[in-house]
Write the structure tokens for this entry.
Amino acid sequence: MAKIGRRPGETATKESILDAATRQFGAHGYDATTIRSVAAEAGVDPALVLHFFGSKIELFVSAVRWPFDPAAEVPRVIGGGDRGSGRRLVDLFVSTWDAEDRRNPIVALLQAAMNQEPAGRHLRDVVEREILVPLLTALGSDRIELRANLVASQLLGLGVARYVLGFEPIASLPAEAVIDLVSPSVQRSLTGQL
């Protein structure tokens, strides 16, 4: 009689594929990572990768995890009240991006979001729905969607300029200087009059 249910080891296999994909997308970016290279590192057939994830972009979206837990960090950003929330938010993003092991997946996501709609959708979902909307709601801000767009454009623009394109001098400035320069405009977008 044939067994029914999950194959033994299916969850572990899927996790090993995700781990390999996370490492490769972080180290090499979206374009340079292939289904075959992920499969080889995970020790599986490329067809199994496609079985679990369907396509390279779906594997990417599943593998690239935001480097901090928004549910844990948003309360910290709010913790000191609305004054200074912009500075704490910029500090959170800059300190995350400055830590190379945490930056690489986000840089890969920023790059892929420019020309892969599922990656762009994933980035928008995390930044707006999981970080900015809860933050703005807790701050009691009005026009939440507009404010979320403004803050996202500033933070993601900073990420692209500093970490993807390497615009100088912002790419070489110390983190504290970047935080000092960007925080006032983020604070205005969070709580100032529009």
